[in-house]
Amino acid sequence: MSLIEEIDYGTPRSKSETMVTLTIDGNQVTVPEGTSIMRAAMDAGHQIPKLCATDMVDAFGSCRLCVVEIEGRAGTPASCTTPAMNGLVVHTQSERLKKLRKGVMELYISDHPLDCLTCGANGDCELQDMAGAVGLRDVRYGYEGENHVFAKSNGKINAAWMPKDESNPYFTYDPSKCIVCSRCVRACEEVQGTFALTISGRGFDSRVSPGMSESFLGSECVSCGACVQACPTATLTEKSVIEIGQPEHSVVTTCAYCGVGCAFKAEMRGEEVVRMVPYKDGKANRGHSCVKGRFAWGYTNHKERILNPMIRERIEDPWREVSWDEAFSFAAEKMRGIQKKYGRDAIGGITSSRCTNEETYLVQKLIRAGFGNNNVDTCARVCHSPTGYGLSQTFGTSAGTQDFDSVEDTDVAVIIGANPASAHPVFASRLKKRLRQGAKLIVIDPRRTEMVESPHVKALHLPLMPGTNVAVVTALAHVIVTEGLANEAFIRERCDWSEFEEWAAFVAQPKHSPEATAILTGIDPKDLREAARIYATGGNGAIYYGLGVTEHSQGSTTVIAIANLAMVTGNIGRPGVGVNPLRGQNNVQGSCDMGSFPHELPGYRHISGEAVRDQFEALWNVKLNPEPGLRIPNMFDAAIEGTFMGIYVQGEDILQSDPNTKHVVAALSAMECVIVHDLFLNETANYAHVFLPGSSFLEKDGTFTNAERRIQRVRKVMTPKNGMADWEVTIALAKAMGFEMNYNHPSEIMDEIAALTPTFTGVSYAKLDELGSVQWPCNEKAPEGTPVMHMDGFVRGKGKFIVTEYVATDERTGPRFPLLLTTGRILSQYNVGAQTRRTENVVWHAEDRLEIHPHDAEQRGVREGDWVRLTSRAGETTLRAEITDRVSPGVVYTTFHHPDTQANVITTDYSDWATNCPEYKVTAVQISPSNGPSDWQKSYDEQARHSRRIAPAEAAE
């Protein structure tokens, strides 16, 4: 194996369809109009020396190393900023050019430390490479004068290099090695969109600076890594490279954090990861990354990771480490015993949205064919199950309509109940780039999120009251219909006209106007009307939404209302438009595709369908139960009733992530066998009897499916530290339970998935290796996948308009609980924090905090940083206050990344009417000053510490 080389063409690709032909060093080259001479030369096989140019960002033309000669033109223009034109005759090498380039390099080297042998970038330094490329062998200038290398104080040059900035936990900044090429500054602006870096000072004092000469950690830098990636020297270098050395081989894999699905090169020395570098050919991320995917992979080696199977009879007992065989035998005996005592339906399982498609498929297969019931569910139940229901009802499919590239053609972006800058940051960067080019942004959110406050982006913010999504979206539709802004041609051609007429009459009712609904929503009617007009008339309109839409008692209704909005304006079925759910976890789309819901087999086909069951029964050689099984909330209720007594939970921390924590505790405590299959002793494991150690994404082969339906390979870069990949663990557990599943490699599991799932018919590892990735449906009609859905018609035939009546949540504010709590994520942390809390990312978010509006804080005597008690009808917890006007009066907000906060002690059992997705986003609460942790937090912490005891090896024998 070797390092995967990626060609840097120096300047971005031109999208023009007009071609031009020129001659470079005697060779004719034809390229798209707008292509730089530098890139055209690369196409012809001529590599022009460069330092400030990279195809990540627009041409800058500052280094003067890429100069060329053009016949008929005076001077030596920079090839990076000079466009190719018909008939040009270009020379990239001549005596004059050699002399110029050598002189330029001589000046750079005179202003640079010559510590190459001990430099962290040795062997991976463009300055070093270019010195060789131009034939520089001697430098005539000494170090007597001022330069970057030596620090200056009191007007004198000190014999010490300028101090490094080591504040960022993941990379170091060495100003003495900065050549002021501005690549990092441009990457921060053009690729990331944060604008955190600048060039400060003049002349020899000029250098990169984060903000106003702040430290990197203290600045607005979000540690996405774009600057490190762009840097051609060792000015910005990963600390892991400095510590370990340069990598010697790399493997392309897929990030295991959010639903964007970024492709990375895992750059390795042996089985040790040196760094994760975003892969330029990754179609979801196009060579960009965020702090989590780029840097927060250290949890795979964390000391708290459990590598040996463990069992115990009672949750009060300490854990006992055992062999794999003993663990499987113990677990199978317990689960079979429960079925014998309580019946076949008394056990079930929960698949993981963090594991691969193949592993998820095996877990649902084990439950349906091995356990003999359909008691299988997944964390999508508590996040995006309304997406599946709402979009299948209106469009006929349970997934987003576009690929991420589509955003480049968007003219109006509507973000509802999502904060991509925190939860889907790489997509957010792509969106912000389009917004800086002139697209308009409408944000519908109770908070003034990072998207609203983003640099160089002006957003129309509609700060609605939590729980009023349906009223807001229907009011938008009211304006579109009553002002004659509907796209009648699209509706007549693509939708059911009679259903549209019924729906249009409904939304046109005066009670749905912005003025009438303002008392509910809290939104200025003028702003809402303006938003509706912009979306309906502004060109290609795309809607992106998140858990702020789905995690409501009317989550499914809101998804349907959003689909109605897209259809009435004709914003569906082409690039730049569509309805796009931003999936939370890396494989939440895949876990749904693989049949993780109790009523659906893989491919979203109902378990009651005899013809569908026949296919699975023939291949699995077993009779399947035609009755849908229990959803997660039903499992909990049945456990408390005493009829559901055993559960296998793979890669999901239901105790921390599901609502009404006390109810979950009661359910888990009542069960006789809880099997947790994970990397760490998570919160659910406090109530487990069997712990099966999991493997990280770096330790297994498989596929993930991201939010744009993109199926991508996950490739093993190291041996599983626990000895078994997760798919192997599930197969062994099934065998112990008496159900044989025989596979030698995950590719064979995918072959079975493709044989049974119509949307995956053409998917194979060979195809994924060839194409890089594919978006389902991938079949005979679309052999290379489907980037944009519903282009020629809806999957269900005619698009279906459905009336969306607003029904207020049963969770109401009142004298006891006058405030509304809503929850969300923060950039540096992920979901329940099990992975990110075990990395250096905690430096940005060491604890969950409660955001409170200054008015509400003043009324309650709460100051910044005070401990406050947060109480609801379900429970109470305490956390520190953060006073901010990002939330409206009457609304408070917190994250749920830290288990010591237990934010879900507060959330209630209210859920979506169609899917049981919990109503996390609307909880009536009261806050009051506190002295510290609540009684519940203290007792929970005590139980957790007691439960995590592991018996010494000699005691276990």
TrEMBL record:
Designated name of the protein: Formate dehydrogenase subunit alpha
SMART domains: Molybdop_Fe4S4 (SM00926), NADH-G_4Fe-4S_3 (SM00929)
GO BP, one annotated term: respiratory electron transport chain
Keyword terms, alphabetized: 2Fe-2S, 4Fe-4S, Iron, Iron-sulfur, Metal-binding, Molybdenum, Oxidoreductase, Repeat
Residue span(s) of domain 4Fe-4S ferredoxin-type: 169-200, 212-241
Origin: domain of life: Bacteria
Domain 2Fe-2S ferredoxin-type per the UniProt entry, residue ranges: 18-96
4Fe-4S His(Cys)3-ligated-type domain: residues covered: 96-135
